Amino acid sequence: MALSRNDISFTKNAILISNSISFQGNAAILKPFPKTNAGFREIPMPTVLREYLKVYLKQLDGLFLFEMNRKQGLMTKSSYNKFWKGIILKLNTALGGNDNIKPIQGLTAYTFRHNYATMLYYAGIDIKEAQYLLGHENVEMTLDIYTHLEKSKSNAAKKLDDFIAM
């Protein structure tokens, strides 16, 4: 939510992370620093995102990528919650859902962060670079995610068969 136009660098082909948002009651508070020092980072921008952001920024009225509107600025906590409910509603409708059938539930920004970590893993990004890109202060946090993913794709039986066949 703290991303602004100034954080999108088409010359570096990166998204710069240097701010964060916290809520005090319903009000969003912009902090001129991320949650930890490891949070300061440049995230490489995939080509498909680059092209999408060029179009999005032309349509954007305000400074921040996620605002209530130009006059009111950053989203309040309640508007943020409505924003996510709207996304979930649109996805459920697109999937044929209705008031009784909701294929997608519990979708959050953290879901997309975990998906990004998963993409890094399957793309072969090494653990130290993933730590940097995710803004983790210590590698153990990144290892927890990567270890979980490694176990989910593990083919222990085949690995044992290959080893025994040697």
Please describe the topology of this protein:
Elements: E1 8-9, E2 14-17, E3 20-24, E4 27-31, E5 41-44, H1 47-59, E6 67-69, E7 73-74, H2 77-94, H3 109-122, H4 127-134, H5 139-152, H6 156-164
Helix pairs in contact: 3-5, 4-5
Order of helices and strands: EEEEEHEEHHHHH
Please describe the biggest sheet, giving its number of strands, its sense, and whether it closes into a barrel. 3 strands, antiparallel
Distance between the termini: 53 Å
* Principal-axis shape: globular
Q: Report the structural category.
A: alpha+beta
Mean pLDDT across the residues is 88
Low-pLDDT segments, ≥5 res: none
User: How much beta, percentage-wise?
Assistant: 15-25%
Helix content range of the residues, please?
40-55%
Rg, Å, rounded? 20 Å
Q: Output the number of helix runs.
A: 6
Q: How many strand elements?
A: 7
Sequence of strands across the biggest β-sheet: 1-2-5
